[in-house]
Amino acid sequence: MLSKSKHLDAFLRFGPQRTWNMCVQVVHKRFCSMNESPELPNWVKYPLDGSSVVDSVDDFVLPTTVNYVSTKKVQDCKISMPSKITDNDVEEISTILKSLYTSPEEVVKALDHCYVVVSESMVEKVLKRFSNDWIPAFGFFRWYQMQSTYKHSANLYDSVVDILGKTKMFDIMWELVVEMFQLGGLISLTTMSKIMRRLARGGKYVDAIVAFREMERFGLSKDIVAMNVLLDSLCKERGVEYALDAFLEFKNEMPPNSHTFNVLIHGCCKARQLNKAQWALEEMERCGIHPCVISYTSLIEAYCREKDFRKVDAILDEMQSKGCPPNVVTYTIVMHSLGKAKETYEALGIYERMKRNGCVPDTSFYNSLIYILSKAGRIKDANNIYEDMSKNGCMPDVTTYNTMISAACDHSQVENALKLLQEMEETLCKPDLKTYAPLLKLCCQKKWMRILFFLLDDMFKKDISIEIGTYCLLVNGLCKSGNLGQACLFFEEMVLKGLLPWSNTYSRLVKELERKEMETEKEKIRQLMEQAKSMQQPC
DNA sequence: TGAAGTTTAA
C-alpha cells in the first residue's frame, strides 16, 4: 500500500486518477499474489489456510474465523464462468473509460484501437457502470454506434437519455431525443417518462410539463398513464404546485383515475400541505372515485410526521368503519413513526394490533421492526427478528442486510458486518451503495485504508457507482481520522467527475488543512471548489 | 424506481 506521504505526493504530481489507479493496482497485486486470479469472487482472495492478512498500515486484522468460501466453491467458479470473455471485455473497456476525458469525442478516439467483441448486454453493463459519468458513457455509446454490428436499440437509447438527464446535460439529451425521433420508432412512453422524471429532478418543472404537452409531436399519444407519470415526477421532486396546476390544465382532456388522485394526495402530504391533500381527496370523491387504503395511508403518514398520533388513531378507526381496513403498509408507517419517536412500547403494540387484525407482516415490515429495535439499542431482539423472518416465509432483502450491517457497524462489530456481506453474496442478494456506506465510514474512522480500498474496488466490480454522498462520506471520515492526503485525493476525484462537493465537506477539509498548515493543498482544494462550481449547469 | 411503507447523512 502506498504510504500517506506518497499518496499526497502522487496527488500533487499526477492528479487523482493515476494515483487512484496506482492504489487499486497495489491492492490488486497484493491480493493476486496471495492466492487466486483476480476474476475469482472477492472473498476467495482472502487466504483460506487460516493465516491472517496483516497490513502494516491497518491496525485491523481480517477475520479468519469466518470461513468465507469453501475450496469447492473456488473450483466451481474456475470451471463455470460462461460469461468470462464478456466480463473481461467489460473490464477492458472500463479501464479505458476510467481515465479522465473532457469530451465524448475524446472517449471515441481513446476507444479507437479497442478490439473487443461488443454485444448489447455488454453495452448495457458498461452504461450502468458509468451511469454517473456522462462523458465516458456517452462517448462509449457513440463509439458503439460506429461499430459495424450496431443496430439501433430503443433500450440503449433510453439508457443514454436517462444518464444525460441524470447528469443534467439536458441540451445533449434533447439532441439525442430528436435523433431518436428522426430514426423512427425509438421513442416510447418509457423514454418520455425518463425525460419527465429527470427534468423534474433537475428542478425544470415547466420543461417537464412542456415535454408532456408536446408528446404528440414525438408521435406518442397523451394518455392518463403518461399524465400520472408527469404528476408523480413533479410531486416527487418538490413541485407539488406545478403538479396541481398541470392537473387542472389536463383533467378535462384526460379523465383522472384513482392513481391520479393518490399521486396528488401523497404529493401534498409529503409537502406538508394537508389542506391541499384534503382538497384532492374531496375532488376525488366529486369525480365519483372512493378514497382507498392508499389515499388514507398517505394521510396517516402525514399525521405521523406531525407526531399527531391521536389523529392517526382516528383515521385508523375511520378506515375500519368504512370497510377499508389498514394493510401492512399502513401498519409499517405507524409502527416506524412511533419507533422513531422513541415510543418503542407503543410501536410494538402496533405489531400486536396488526397480528390481531389478521394482517400478515412482510419483509419491509420486518425491516422496519429490525431498524427500530436496533436504534433502541435492542440488538439482540433485532437479531431474533432477523432469524425469525425467514421462518415466517419472508426472505431478507437488500434493506434487511443494509439495516443489519449498519447496526453492526454502529456497534463496531465489523466481523458481523462482513459476515452479513458474505451472506448477501451467498444468497445472491445484490448489495448497493447503502450496504457499503457504513462499512466505508467505519474504515475511515478506524484508519483501515487497505480494507477501504478493497471495498471501493469491490463496489466498482459489482457495478455500484460511487456518487456525491459517498465521496463526501469518505472526505469527512478521512478528515475526522486525520488522513488529509487521502481526503484531498477523493475531493479532487469528485470534482473531476463533475460533482459539486457539499459545502460543509469542503469547509471541513479546508479547516483541517489550515489546522495542519498544509497551505499548498489548501490552495489546491480551494481552486478545485471554484472549478466544481463553474462546472455546474445553471438550473 | 415510480399510486402508499422499511436503510442514510454531511
From TrEMBL:
<keyword id="KW-0175">Coiled coil</keyword>
<feature type="repeat" description="PPR">
    <location>
        <begin position="397"/>
        <end position="431"/>
    </location>
</feature>
<dbReference type="Pfam" id="PF12854">
    <property type="entry name" value="PPR_1"/>
</dbReference>
<feature type="repeat" description="PPR">
    <location>
        <begin position="362"/>
        <end position="396"/>
    </location>
</feature>
<feature type="repeat" description="PPR">
    <location>
        <begin position="467"/>
        <end position="501"/>
    </location>
</feature>
<dbReference type="Pfam" id="PF01535">
    <property type="entry name" value="PPR"/>
</dbReference>
<feature type="repeat" description="PPR">
    <location>
        <begin position="292"/>
        <end position="326"/>
    </location>
</feature>
<feature type="coiled-coil region">
    <location>
        <begin position="503"/>
        <end position="535"/>
    </location>
</feature>
<feature type="repeat" description="PPR">
    <location>
        <begin position="188"/>
        <end position="222"/>
    </location>
</feature>
<dbReference type="Pfam" id="PF13041">
    <property type="entry name" value="PPR_2"/>
</dbReference>
<dbReference type="InterPro" id="IPR011990">
    <property type="entry name" value="TPR-like_helical_dom_sf"/>
</dbReference>
<dbReference type="InterPro" id="IPR002885">
    <property type="entry name" value="PPR_rpt"/>
</dbReference>
<feature type="repeat" description="PPR">
    <location>
        <begin position="327"/>
        <end position="361"/>
    </location>
</feature>
<comment type="similarity">
    <text>Belongs to the PPR family. P subfamily.</text>
</comment>
<protein>
    <submittedName>
        <fullName>Uncharacterized protein</fullName>
    </submittedName>
</protein>
<feature type="repeat" description="PPR">
    <location>
        <begin position="257"/>
        <end position="291"/>
    </location>
</feature>
<keyword id="KW-0677">Repeat</keyword>
